[in-house]
Write a structure and sequence with these properties.
Layout (H helix, E strand, L loop, with lengths): L10 E5 L32 E8 L6 E7 L6 E6 L13 E4 L1 E4 L7 E7 L7 E8 L2 E2 L3 E4 L7 E6 L10 H18 L5 E4 L10 H7 L10 E2 L11 H5 L26 E5 L2 E5 L13 H16 L5 E8 L11 H9 L1 H6 L4 E5 L4 E4 L2 E2 L2 E2 L10 E2 L7 E4 L26 E2 L2 E5 L2 E5 L5 E8 L2 E8 L8 H4 L16 E7 L7 E7 L7 E6 L9 E5 L3 E7 L3 E5 L7 E7 L2 E3 L2 E3 L4 E9 L5 E2 L6 H4 L8 E6 L6 E14 L5 E13 L1
Parallel strand pairs: 11-12, 12-13, 15-16, 16-17, 17-22, 21-28
Antiparallel strand pairs: 1-41, 2-3, 3-7, 4-5, 4-8, 6-7, 8-9, 8-10, 11-26, 14-15, 18-22, 18-25, 19-20, 23-24, 26-27, 27-28, 29-30, 29-41, 30-31, 31-32, 32-40, 33-40, 34-39, 34-41, 35-36, 37-40, 38-39
């Protein structure tokens, strides 16, 4: 941290970063949907098909959607797998009433969905849908820790049926899902880039898309693509949380029409996800256009952005892609409309599809390259304020690939498709572009202090790879680029300003460890792992990032540096900053610096600890000019009554001089 002091009148220098908070949803409630109308009589039991597990509003929820051949009242039943006996659900299994309606005529039958609430962490669950005497096959999923690190997978455009070979499209999609989850079995979400199928209401294509059994074991976060939007089958197959289906978020402005639409959001652990219907981009279509999405994203981030460490947007139409859609007029419109708002709101990552090729942008700020010196293919990027990473996913099924196109002379900012001065064969906005005609998926690792984004090969030139099987070229070499090898990898390190942002991960009381880190790649402050003491509290220790003080003033006026810490917060949970204490010391003497007295944790003396301003070091009038490096040993003691969670606080440094 660099602190400056004025050379004339008394001054105060204060630098800080905003407190962050992780999402935690520990209150468990059973939400029952409204029941169906009086069941219609049926000669045969209803057939139950198209079952898919969906993402819920948070990690304690899942949605399930299915088709029924009959208009009967149905339920979703769920129980911990350990409580099943010989495959039979216990009498006390939780049930959730399903809601839904009649499908469009071309789909036939009826759709149902229900939301599972009150899930517990680190638990395997089994579920089934239907009614007594007519239950579906039971499927299973597992929850993991509701706090901390996790991985999710992002899949671009399966677009089942687009090659004309439905069976091979399905086989390629099945293989990608199987390969991805075999390599990453603990992934917690499957996120869609849109275009699940080629034809919006073609149920044969939907059946092929839904064929992988993993889609009933891992939650799918759906996205509307341009091949999904032209019918109601998308809305019939997917129930999404917190969904706004108001008219401005439909491309034609009419939610009652035979189209799908709407935007939605959810928080999963440390990430706020917002999913947009990018098919609606111009008011001339009848909807609210991009302006409606901008308002939606702004409202959601203003209301919920502080509940998560990371902000990730998902929509179908890539605005920074390398192939045939890069120069589409609608994408140029979005490229002008979206980026400045995303930069202003602190979005970290944008996941996109549509162009059936892979690209990773440079960090983009306000429709321009944030740092002109960022090199192509950099392994680590540091966004600074307003820098956003945009990723376009290639085909996950092999049903269709688009080849990379050439830049033109239209400019190197905004809507332009000009060449990158550092790599003239690429567009100005792309750090990495790739097309091998090989299936891939994107893996995102969510960590306290970084996001790691990897594009991973899920196939080779060999079948199932529909477009290549039909005669298209392929330059992937199996021996050198096998299944599971990386096309690209980048680590995104967050910007934390000049202050030090502190994070505490608090486990359940005993047994277990208390592990915590300092969040911030501008000098990570790591207090290691704390131990439970005396059966009533936790202790941890560490050091602040050194603070360098330089004083070359002729006046030799006195100076002092002090600090205070905010309360540690995790959504609505909190504990006092008074539990943090320190022992200041000099790492390098100079400038007359004298370390201040230690401050005990308020746990020891019922005092205020660092919750009020405390001295770090100071110098008297007449001190010599020079510099000093200040340090402090941190000591945290907190009661074991503090609830589990991911807590953050802000350490504010103040320099005073006269």
């Amino acid at each position: 941290m660099k602190l400056s002091t004025p050379t004339q009148a008394s001054g105060l220098v204060r630098r800080r970063v905003a407190t962050g908070a992780t999402a935690a949803f520990l209150g468990l409630a059973v939400a029952l949907g409204s029941g169906m109308a009086s069941p219609a009589a049926a000669a045969e039991p209803a057939s139950l098909t198209g079952i898919i597990l969906g993402v819920g509003a948070n990690e304690t929820q899942r949605t399930v959607t299915w088709y029924s051949s009959a208009d009967t009242a149905q339920k979703l039943q769920v129980a911990p797998t350990a409580e099943l006996a010989n495959g039979e659900f216990p009498a006390g299994a939780a049930t959730f009433d399903a809601i839904g309606g009649a499908n469009i005529a071309s789909s036939g039958g009826f759709n149902r969905h229900a939301t599972i609430t009150g899930l517990k962490e680190n638990t395997a669950y089994s579920y089934r849908v239907g009614t007594e005497g007519n239950w579906s096959t039971a499927y299973s999923f597992k929850t993991q820790d509701f706090e901390g690190n996790y991985d999710f997978l992002f899949f671009g455009d399966p677009q089942i049926g687009s090659s004309g070979d439905l069976a091979q499209d399905q086989a390629g999609w099945q293989d990608t899902v199987d390969v991805a989850l075999a390599a990453n079995p603990d992934s917690e979400l499957l996120v869609s880039g849109g275009d699940q199928v080629e034809s919006a209401n073609n149920e044969s294509q939907w059946n092929s898309f839904l064929a992988p059994d993993k889609l009933r074991q891992y939650p799918w976060a759906a996205t509307i693509g341009n091949h999904d939007v032209g019918g109601k089958a998308y809305e019939q197959h997917f129930s999404t949380p917190n969904t706004d289906r108001s008219a401005p978020l439909y491309s034609n402005g009419d939610p009652a029409s035979n189209t799908s639409g709407g935007d939605y959001w959810y928080i999963y652990k440390d990430v706020l996800f917002i999913d947009l219907n990018s098919n609606s981009y111009a008011t001339s279509q009848g909807g609210g256009g991009d302006a409606a999405h901008i308002k939606y994203v702004t409202d959601i981030i203003n209301k919920h952005g502080s509940e998560a460490k990371w902000k990730v947007l998902t929509y179908h139409h890539s605005i920074y892609s390398p192939a045939s859609h890069a120069k589409d007029g609608d994408n140029k419109t979005r490229r002008v409309d979206f980026p400045t708002t995303f930069s202003k709101l602190g979005v970290d990552l944008v996941l996109q599809g549509h162009d059936h090729s892979y690209s990773r942008s440079y960090l983009i700020k306000n429709s321009e390259k944030a740092n002109p010196d960022e090199k192509p293919g950099a392994a680590d990027v540091y966004p600074g304020p307003g820098g956003v990473l945009y990723v376009t996913a290639n085909s996950s099924s092999g049903s269709k690939y688009y080849d990379i196109t050439k830049p033109d002379s239209s400019g190197t900012s905004g809507a332009g498709n000009g060449a990158d001065p550092l790599n003239p064969d690429s567009y100005w906005y792309n750090s990495v572009q790739n097309q091998e005609h090989v299936r891939t998926y994107v893996k995102v690792q969510v960590r306290n202090d970084k996001l790691v984004v990897e594009n991973v090969r899920s196939g080779t030139c060999d079948a199932p790879n529909s477009e290549v099987s039909q005669g298209s070229w392929c330059n992937n070499t199996t021996a050198e680029q096998p299944v599971g090898s990386l096309v690209d990898k980048v680590t995104v390190h967050p910007y934390n300003g000049d202050s030090q942002s502190l994070q505490v991960n608090v486990p359940n009381a005993a047994p277990g460890e208390f592990g915590w880190t300092i969040d911030g790649y501008n000098g990570l402050v790591d207090l290691g792992t704390a131990q439970e003491r005396n059966g009533d509290h936790f202790e941890a220790s560490g050091k602040i990032n050194p603070i360098l003080v330089s004083d070359s003033r002729r006046s030799l006026a006195p100076w002092s540096v002090s600090a205070n810490v905010s309360d540690f917060k995790d959504a609505d949970k909190t504990f006092s900053g008074s539990y943090l204490g320190w022992a200041p010391h000099l790492l390098d003497g100079g400038a007359g610096a004298v370390a201040s007295e230690p401050v005990a944790s308020g746990y020891d003396d019922q005092g205020k600890g660092l919750s009020i301003s405390r001295g770090l070091a100071s110098a008297e009038q007449g001190h010599p000019r020079g510099s000093a490096k200040l340090g402090a040993d941190l000591g945290l003691k907190i009661p074991d009554s503090v609830q589990k969670g991911g807590y953050r606080a802000t350490l504010t440094i103040t320099a005073l001089s006269s």
